[in-house]
Structures are given as structure tokens and as C-alpha cells.
Give the backbone structure.
Amino acid sequence: GAGVSQSPSNKVTEKGKDVELRCDPISGHTALYWYRQRLGQGLEFLIYFQGNSAPDKSGLPSDRFSAERTGESVSTLTIQRTQQEDSAVYLCASSPRGGGGTGELFFGEGSRLTVL
Amino acid sequence: KNEVEQSPQNLTAQEGEFITINCSYSVGISALHWLQQHPGGGIVSLFMLSSGKKKHGRLIATINIQEKHSSLHITASHPRDSAVYICAVTSGGSNYKLTFGKGTLLTVNP
């Protein structure tokens, strides 16, 4: 596809279950970001992948959160033993280069996670 | 840590009005983004700038580095401009880690 694709678009899960969220970036984009947006709050940085460099995981809120990226393609964000405070929209973005000051960001539609 | 403040939090306008949304930040930056988030969550990047002014259609973004302030202007506003507008900055030696404002909810009535 032409844009950033995320799946699932909606996920309802029970507290304590594991969830996996997927992001397909735009082909050729070397930079990939995960953000979290809680209801009524601003976006929070979670993790950044750039090419084959070690990812910046400094935004991950706890060790229940992990993310992987295969080369410069698909990324998965995994949340283990979900808690109610994990309920949020998880947004993925990609950029043709390192983002921020050096590249425009392209966002997916997000995955809305609800933990009951 | 950079603090990003947007004002106003909410803005209601009539179609055709000139709109201004403001963004202030506390620490020097390498770049500032303006993003648009429509109901349903999709986010679109409007501008990325580090100095001066950029224009795209009816949208204009300006930044004053000395005053640590940016504005987003919408001329001849239209109901389809209704969205949340988000300011985000990169700073602190990182050219990729964005700090986001909480957004400005704009409603343009016909």
C-alpha cells in the first residue's frame, strides 16, 4: 500500500493477556516510530528504529513492552500481561530518513487497545 | 526536557474566519512539526520547520527561534479544517525524539 498500515485497528482484551500490534511502514522508509496516545492526552514517544542501528527504547513505559523490527520493514509492538492503564491508541509512523529535524513523518491510522 | 504548550486548547470559529494556533516551547529545538489529527485518529504531517515561514494552500506556519514560539494560521477556514492541531518539537541533541503538545481542538462551523 501507499501509506503506513497498522493492525489490528481495534483490539479489546482482558487484563493479563498479551497483545501484539503490527506496523507496515512505507516501503523504503528507514525510520520507524511507535507512539502512544491515551484518551485526552498528547502523544508519547515509545520507541524508534533507524535502519540496522540499535533501537532507542527509552520511551517504553515498562518491561512488559517490547518491540521488534525486521530489517527496514514490518515492526511489532508487544505488550505482555496487559493492564488497564495500557488502554490507548498506539500509533506507528515512518520517515524516509531519521525523523525529527531531518524527515517528514507519515502516520498510520493507529491501533486502539482497550484492556478490560 | 522540553515543555510544549499550545493555545488555545479549544477554538470555535465561523466558516471564513482567520485562525491562529500558538505553540511555545521551553528549550531550543532542531525542528518543529505541525500535525493534524482528524476524528477517528488519523494524523497528517502539515509542516516541518526550523526557521522562518512555510505556506501550503490556506495554511501558513511561522517560527521565531529567539522567542521559542510558532504559530499555525488558517486563512478562509472551512468546516473540513475541523480537527486537532498538534505541535511537536525535537530537541536535546535528538533529531528524532519528538515532544508533543496536547493539541488544539478546532471546530469550524458553517
